[in-house]
Amino acid sequence: MTDPVIARLLQDRAGFVARLAELVACRSVSTDPAYAEGMAAARAWWCRRLAAMGFRDVGEIAAGGHPAVTARWHGAGPDAPTLLVYGHYDVQPPDPVEAWASPPFDLTARNGRLHARGVSDDKGPSLLALEAVGAYLAVEGQLPVNVTVLLEGEEEIGSRTLATMLQGNRDRFAADAALSADGARWRADLPTMTIGTRGNMATEITLRTAAKDLHSGRYGGVAPNALHAMARLLATLHDAEGNILVAGFGEGAALVTEADRAALAAIPYDVAAHDASIGIAPSGRSNAEFLERLWLRPTLDVNGLWGGYTGAGGKTVIPAEAHAKLSMRLVPGQVPAKVAAALAVHLRAHCPKGATLDIAPTRDGTVATLLEGDHPLLVAAEGALEATTGRTPLRVRMGATLPLTDIVQRVLGIGTVMFSFATADEDFHAPNENWRETAIEEGFAAWVALLRGLEGKSRADFAAFRRE
Amino acid sequence: MTDPVIARLLQDRAGFVARLAELVACRSVSTDPAYAEGMAAARAWWCRRLAAMGFRDVGEIAAGGHPAVTARWHGAGPDAPTLLVYGHYDVQPPDPVEAWASPPFDLTARNGRLHARGVSDDKGPSLLALEAVGAYLAVEGQLPVNVTVLLEGEEEIGSRTLATMLQGNRDRFAADAALSADGARWRADLPTMTIGTRGNMATEITLRTAAKDLHSGRYGGVAPNALHAMARLLATLHDAEGNILVAGFGEGAALVTEADRAALAAIPYDVAAHDASIGIAPSGRSNAEFLERLWLRPTLDVNGLWGGYTGAGGKTVIPAEAHAKLSMRLVPGQVPAKVAAALAVHLRAHCPKGATLDIAPTRDGTVATLLEGDHPLLVAAEGALEATTGRTPLRVRMGATLPLTDIVQRVLGIGTVMFSFATADEDFHAPNENWRETAIEEGFAAWVALLRGLEGKSRADFAAFRRE
């Protein structure tokens, strides 16, 4: 017999997609102030929807940055656990817009996938989660746990004010565990639970070689070129295989053991297919090497590089300035401030002759996280996945960063389970971001199964996992 | 007693500056199609002015690119020499506009200099030249030589169609020598004649490492980064001292001899002051080494470099594409096509693992030039400078390129004398381009003296210097 909550959700499937189209039409790009109107529109949309679902205390809350949307249903009583259900309404910039096959803010169905900026990261998955909770509440008249909703507006810019906002509202957000609708399933063909994330850190550097741009005919041969200097400097960061050459970069990082490598080798993965799917040259790496690089080793990437004349035609200029944006992914044990310091030492030591280096102050960064294997919410989530897919989920990690996991642990003393129905091949942060349509049915079933699995749980079950 | 032509010019000095302001207000940027209207406005302005001066056959002439403005006064008779007086009405892009202290297309006087894009390169110097010729014609009723005016619209984009245009109109442009109002005096404190130019060559390269931009959390560590590849590739082009490492790059180049070095050492030059004037780290180079690098050695500069996210804030992207614009300055003996081939071989050989390289087709390029020491127009020009400055001009070269010199030699079989009253420190091609106000009086005097010095010359005097 079909679960009546799932029946209700499936009956309204078209309504769900229509609401998702409204939500992605809100251009909520958090990194660029030009999109402020879209950010406000997304918040207003969510407030209306949460109120309609029966949530109380619906509103916005901020600590100097983009406000979060929050709401509560605390009708399960003081002995029931409280879950902080998390998602984010902000998205990455759509650039380069010309690379999109359909307009980035118009939800477009194509080849079994819905396309739009933010559809997979994280508007689809977060709407899916809360629609399931709302349907449960509508059908059953109550939820098995107390729920506090937190929809962040700064996930794509490193959750700048989330810690401050939670710190200033600890009572409002007090919970026994966090349940994230963000974070992405590793892949579509295998049920997995993600138990760890990499941290991150970002900075920007500028090199200057002259007081002004110079004409290459008048100064060519006698003036240094900032772009040459930048190329020389960036070329010192990695070897030809892409390994990081910054001394002290990995200080404190958990060593990768032979047991780790054996566990990775046991996870089936077609590396050649992966390489082909993103159009990169075949790496020839084994499963274990691939997963080790993706999950257990840090990275250092140049995300943007620019200087000189970049318009149409040519310009015979010797550029006086060059700029680069850099970001890093960190593994458990790495301390962001120490990583930033090691990078700064390297950059200063390798700054080419004739150039002066300016390193922008780094933000705090985010540490990597790893969840306990017997955490009751993790076990319940694994049970829900097993019940709806018929397969035991594999425990995996993710190469990406969820600042939430680190912040709620530090501020609220709780662990986070990621229960997302996005999948990692859906071009987050790139043109043509998309979301499998099948995730809708799978996600409805799993979220309802998880709520069913939490029936009868009490706060006491979570006591051992608090991290004061 | 003041020369009546000079008296007339000085009396109308304010009118000259007002006309120059009108001319620089025409936004004649040739490299970017967005400026087509400004290009047309500059041509229309020149046609009106040349007709008002008494030139005949005033009009535009084109060969598939931006039209040139041309005009003639051939009343000196068939035995008098014909001079092709050259300038250009196109200018460099004003970018970065925010670095200008006054709007780039508003002529602004400040600290004894006029500021605007193109004021020095080449609108001021070309207007100066033709106003002097026009005043001579008005006062004397005739000129000592036949004059054909050629104001090019593609000097800043490598004179793409100039050769074709001259080739198709050889009778119209037949002359005994070319006299250029472009080319820049080397410096303000010393009368000099520029007898040689460097050639040039430009290309653009693209590296691709994946089919699309990738999220650094999902792919960081397992996907190559196009910006890393570009940095590695560009870092192979020069050593730490800026010397070019491309094998075969200098093939055919005239060797720098000890005699060359001795001649350079005899030219006074304050290298430390030069370095300080453009805000570069002190090079510690001698006169001779400095001038050798600037005049007698080729260069290879990256003029623009870009890829990934370059907007506000950060974006955790692994860019799939990186782009660079490159240009070269060539010395006598280097063949542009061979230089381009050597560069392509180097780039392909050093293309990093995992990246594919695309090299845009190079245009033909321009060879370096060197004028005969006893050319009658050179000797007359030196005489005019000596008469007006009281000092014997030094023969120097320039590090920049004047495609004209190469093209009129190849197509019309004549040499070019550069007689410009721009000076090399006037920030051509950079923000805050400017032109010394004193160049106006100096230029008027010298151009009139040169015309006086050509009185009595015949075509026969130039016969030995034709280069069929």
TrEMBL record, chains A, B:
Single GO biological process annotation from the record: proteolysis
Lineage: Bacteria, Pseudomonadati, Pseudomonadota, Alphaproteobacteria, Acetobacterales
Entry-linked Pfam families: M20_dimer, Peptidase_M20
Chain ranges of the Peptidase M20 dimerisation domain: 195-354
Keyword tags: Hydrolase, Metal-binding, Protease
UniProt organism field: Falsiroseomonas bella
GO molecular function: metal ion binding; peptidase activity
Name recorded for this polypeptide: Peptidase M20
Protease is among the record's keywords: yes
Stored InterPro entries: Cyt/Met_Dipeptidase, Peptidase_M20, Peptidase_M20_dimer
Matching PANTHER family: BETA-ALA-HIS DIPEPTIDASE (PTHR43270), SUCCINYL-DIAMINOPIMELATE DESUCCINYLASE (PTHR43270:SF12)
